[in-house]
Amino acid sequence: MSKYINYFTWDSMSQLSYSKSIGMLAAGNDRFGIMEVSTKSLDYFASLDLLLDKNPIHRLGPPSFGWSVQFSAEQYQKRCAEGKQAQNGFEDFLDRYIEAKSKVPDIVDDNVAEMYLITNLVAGSETVASTICAAVYYVLKDRAVYNRLQEELRGANLSAPPQWKEVRSLPYLDAVMREAMRVHPGVGLLLERIVPKGGFTLPDGRFVPEGTTVGMNPWVMNRDSTIFGSEPDSFMPERWLPAEGEIDEAYQTRSSKMKSTDFTFGAGPQVCLGRHISQLESYKFVATLFTNFDNSTSASSVNCSNPRAAPHSPTQPPTITQPHIISPSHSINNNRTYTRRMTDTAIQPDPALTQLNGGTSNLKSMAPHLPSPQAQCTSTPSTQQPTTSSSLSEIIAQCHHKVHTFLAESHPPDSLLAAVQRQTRISLDVAATALSRYSLPELALSYNGGKDCLVLLVLFLASLHPHPPPENGGLKSIPAIYALPPDPFPTVEEFVQWSSNAYHLDIIKYTTEPPKSTLKSSFAHYLSLHPSVKAIFVGTRRTDPHGAKLTHFDRTDSGWPDFVRVHPVIDWHYAEIWAFIRQLGLEYCPLYDQGYTSLGGQTDTHPNPKLRVDITAGNEATKHYRPAYELTEDLEERLGRN
């Protein structure tokens, strides 16, 4: 059975990439010897890699994936000659890679596009098969798990085949899949990164020099009993569900700790971009299998025919045969060099792949450690600006301290700062109400780097205090969505990236290019990736389009994805926003110092004419703009927008 699972994943990824199946399922065999090559290459003795595989005189390494290289090159050249393959509105990866080549030719050329295709096929097939095999193996091994999963699936009245929007909301299926990926992560070795320039100081004070290769092993992390509870070597889907008698707050804390430690797909800016396809494919496969088929295999028939590939081995996923279940024959092995080659290509920022997933990558600003923008602030800046070396719990404490220090200040009742203090207290009450209605996994933030969203972000973080550190169950990052205009300012994108690092935001970017992609479709896709989210904090104010009739809590309009919009700063005036930013000494987007007062895309945004200053030197007059915070009138804010 495991062979057919592999046939399925290879065929599926080929279909997604080229709109052409390799034909393994139809043939019922390993066409072209792909799996045989994979097995031999992954049993390779990695410590001799430089001497053997990378020998500059004569290669002595394992069999290569030459067939996939040739196949990908042929499909690419054929598509370039014949044009788009889109059918029924579906564009495959190859269409998107060709599109990327025309849009960003300095980044994507023919060789890079072909490399993307090869990576899709090789990295996107084995790992998904490993996850599916692990899930099926352990479900069949435990009759109680099998019965509970089948009962949930058959009681859900799923479509045929099941749709993602149906299966993603099934709690026991989700628990089974998470547990399968915990026990058998697709990559059972270090996910390596290189320490950036300047080095890095660990929380315990130890210093790691720049250039050091560091990494964490998902297989080892997933067996930490302090995170995942007792019997970490056992397959127990129930660990992902509330225990009997467990209060919701305790469960949310425990669940959050496990999910934040999940490195199945890596983490951070270079997390695997194919993770959503992997989850969709594996969840739907397992749901389809156990909804439509009964299996009579008993736990007593489980045996291990290959001691090297024992069920708890980090190097091998389960192989399933009928009628017996045995352990596996191949997976990603503990091959250090191979993993560098595979994971490094698989996680590169890829505009076409990201757009297919509903997001976008700014390839020129993907450096994981961007410097702080040189934003100017004429008020005295605080010495407690967020830094990337602080944990989220520390950032939350800093924001709380800054906000409440400001609230403790004494200002004349009719002054601007007194009005800002009143608005701040109202906004904190709104945030507190949201936190009482929803758990943290049910909340997200809309952030675009603008002044209103910056105030919203700081107030939201201040409301989370006190928040435990990650090792005690606290969050590592705040989930956020960033909807870009079709022509974003690079300066804004750089500031958003800085904000993401400084405030620990886990941002998913979307480019809105109506009618192809809209704000509505962006939020719909974001919620499909985060099905637990029920409310999103938004930095809308009254003077914004469609802001006049909003309240602090508004459910989305008909035709929109269903969630509650939370508007803590809805009643803030323009001058109050800037007074808050400058009084607290917050870093802001540098465009505001160039006369921009409302930020959109490059084609519809320009410096506000109300801030224009003509300076004459000799016989020449030059045009300058005062900073945004010198504007005072709400109705003049959007004069810089077309």
Automatic annotation (TrEMBL):
It catalyses: FMN + ATP + H(+) = FAD + diphosphate. Coiled coil: none annotated. It comes from the Eukaryota. Its cofactor is heme. The keyword Heme applies. It holds the Pfam family PAPS_reduct. Residues 297-306, 354-364 have a biased composition (Polar residues). Residues 443-607 form the Phosphoadenosine phosphosulphate reductase domain. Residues 318-329, 372-388 have a biased composition (Low complexity). The keyword DNA-binding does not apply. Its EC number is 2.7.7.2. Residues 297-334, 350-388 are annotated as: Disordered. GO terms for molecular function: ATP binding; FMN adenylyltransferase activity; heme binding; iron ion binding; monooxygenase activity; oxidoreductase activity, acting on paired donors, with incorporation or reduction of molecular oxygen. GO terms for biological process: FAD biosynthetic process. Pathway: Cofactor biosynthesis; FAD biosynthesis; FAD from FMN: step 1/1. Heme binds at C272. Keywords: ATP-binding, FAD, Flavoprotein, FMN, Heme, Iron, Metal-binding, Nucleotide-binding, Nucleotidyltransferase, Oxidoreductase, Transferase. PANTHER family: FAD SYNTHASE (PTHR23293:SF9), FAD SYNTHETASE-RELATED FMN ADENYLYLTRANSFERASE (PTHR23293). Belongs to the cytochrome P450 family. This is FAD synthase. It comes from Aspergillus bombycis.
